[in-house]
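Ticket #4471: complex job returned nothing on first submit. Input attached below:
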Amino acid sequence: MARVYLDANATTPLDPRVREEMLPWLGCGNASSPHLEGRVARDAIDRARDSVAALIGAAAKEVVFTSGATEANAIALLGAVRAAGARRAYCTAVEHPSVLRTLLAVPGLDVVECPVDAAGVALLPEALTESVGVVSVMLANNETGSVQPVSDFARLARDAGAVMHTDAVQACGKIEVDVAKLGVDLLACSAHKMHGPKGAGALWVRSGVELAPLYSGGEHERGLRPGTENVAAIVGFGAAARFALAGLGARRTRWENLSVVFLEALRAGLPDTAVHLAPVRIANTFSLTFPDVEGEAVLLGLDLEGFAVATGSACSSGAAEPSHVLRAMGLGRDGAERSVRVSMHADTSASDVTRCVAALVRVVKGLRALSG
Amino acid sequence: MARVYLDANATTPLDPRVREEMLPWLGCGNASSPHLEGRVARDAIDRARDSVAALIGAAAKEVVFTSGATEANAIALLGAVRAAGARRAYCTAVEHPSVLRTLLAVPGLDVVECPVDAAGVALLPEALTESVGVVSVMLANNETGSVQPVSDFARLARDAGAVMHTDAVQACGKIEVDVAKLGVDLLACSAHKMHGPKGAGALWVRSGVELAPLYSGGEHERGLRPGTENVAAIVGFGAAARFALAGLGARRTRWENLSVVFLEALRAGLPDTAVHLAPVRIANTFSLTFPDVEGEAVLLGLDLEGFAVATGSACSSGAAEPSHVLRAMGLGRDGAERSVRVSMHADTSASDVTRCVAALVRVVKGLRALSG
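Support reply: We reran it on our side without changes. The output follows.
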C-alpha cells in the first residue's frame, strides 16, 4: 500500500509539471554574468518574478527572491526594525518561530505579543501606540489553518505609522492573496509550501518601504539578498505560483469537501477529539487534540501504518517544547502535547482522508488499550 | 559550433553525476519532520555533510549548510563580530564583495584592509594588534586565482587572539584544502563553484568558536542557519565534494597543462597582453589586461563568437565600477577596465583553450582596427 502524505504544511510534494520546468535550469549560467549563459538565466528569473507577483497581486519589481520564507521574514523584520530604528514591535502570540524568535532576539526591542482566542484568532486591539515601529501578523497559521484579520491590523499599523509585515507562507497558493486588499507593506511566501521546490522564497516589498539588508555582497535582488541566485529553484517557484493561481478555486473546493469527509469520519470514530476550527480557516489543515494520548505516539503509530502527519509546527517537530500556538489558545501543556496536525495538499484524495481517519482511530484506540 | 564556457569562477556546469544524485531529492520530505519522509531527508543531508567535511579535512558535525557562500561569509563574519563584540576587523583589499562590503557595512567597526603586491598576494604584516577581533583572508582570489598565505595570517590571528575566517570558495574542489593545516577557525565554500548546484554553501565552524546567528527560527543547522533545508541542493553539494576530492589531482594536472597551451598561444597572438600570475595560483584562472581595448568590449565580442568569459568578478560583472582587486594590485582605472578573466572548469579541453585564444586574438585585433 502506498504511503499517504498528510503533512503539507511542513512541505508539499513537488508538482511534476514544476519539476519539468526546473530541470533545464539545474546547471545553468550565473544570472549576473553579461554573456549569453548569464542572460538566459536572468530572463528565466524575471519570468518567475512575474508569476510570483501575479499570485499576490503585486508588481514584479517589488518581489525579492530569497532562499526561503524564514530568510524572507528575517529580511522583512530585521530590515524594517533597523531601517526605522524601531524600539517596539507588535505581533501575535501564534507567529511562526522565524518571526517570533527573530523579533525576540533583537537587543533592546520591546516585543508585544497580541493574544488569541480559543480558536487561535488574534484579538484586535483598539489601536496601536505610536511607539510601535513594526507590526507582523501571519495570514494563516501553520498549525491550525486559522486566518488572521491581517487587513484590520494593517489599518491599525497605518494609523500608528508602523511598517506592516505578513508571513503569508501558509496562505499563498491556498487562498486568494492580494497585497493591496491586505493593505500590508511586506509579505513573505515560500515555494515548497505550494508544490514548488525547497530553496526559494520571496519577500514582497511595497515601493518606498525602506529595509536595511542583513548583509552585503553583490547587487542581487536590489541589494536586499546578495548571493548567486538559485535559478532552478526560482524557476520552480514561478511555475508553482502559476499552477497555484490557476488551481486556487479547485483546491479550495476539494479541501472543503474533504474536510466534511474527514470531520464526519473523525467524529464517528473518535468523538472525544477536540478539533480547533477557526471561523475563517484554510480548509486543508486539521489541528486535533486527544483527551488522553500523546501526539508524538500518535504520529509514530501513524507513521508505522504508512501515514505522515505532524505534531506542533514542522520546524519544531521532534523538539521538546509543546506548541506555543496551542498554548496561546489556552491549552495546557498536556493538551498541547496531546495534539496532532493533519494537513492536506493539492492532490490529497477522499481515499487518503478516509484511510487516514481509519488508521487514526486504530492507533488512538490501540494506545488507549495499552495505557488503560 | 557548440559554445565554449570559460567562466568557471562565476559558476560551473553541473556535473551529470551530481545531477543524477540530486534528482530523487527534488520533491522530498521536510528534514525536520520525524516521520519516514522526514527521516530519509535528514539521512541524505547527513551523508552530504560527511562528504563536504571530508573535502576540507573537517569533522562533519562542524559543517553548517547554508544557501550559498555569500550567506556563509555573512554568518561567519557578522556572527564572529557580534559574538566577540569586535571593534576592529582585518582583511585583504582583494576580498570578495560578500566579505569586504559586509565588514564595511557594520556600524562602528574599524576595517583594516591589508595591501597586496602587484601579483595580488597579500603582504603579511609583522603582527596584528590585539584590538583586532576578526580576521578574514580569502584562500584563492576569484579574479586572479592568486593563493593567499592564509596559514601565516592564521598564526598572526591566533597570536592576537582574533577569530580567523577564510573564504575558500575558489579553492575548494580545485586544490587541497585542510582546515587543520590552514589553522583557521571558520571556512566558507560553495557547491556551484565545484560542479555542484546553486543554492548550497557551507560554513565550517571549529568546535568552540562562538557565532551569533543572523536571525532565528527553527533549530536547523545548530541554530546558525534556520529554515527548511534545500535537501536536493545539499545532496548535490555532497556529491560534488566527493567527485572533486577524487578528481583533485587530475583537475590540477589538466589545468597546469592547459595553462601552458593558453599562455603560449596568447603570447604568440597578443604579446602585449599583461597576464597577472601569482607565484602560487589556481591554474584554472587567467587574469588578462590589454593595453588598449575595453574588457567589456572583448567580453561581448567573445560572446558573439560563442565564448563565455568575464570582466572583474562575476558578481559585479555589468556593474559600472572596475575591479577593486586589479586596482589594489596597482592598476589604474583604465587598466582595470581593460581586463578580462578566463576561468577553466574540470572538463575544459585543449581545443576549448586554443579556440578561445584564437577568438580572443580576432576580437582584440578587430577592436584595435575599429578604434585605430
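Chain A is about 40% helix and 15% strand. Closing as resolved unless it happens again.
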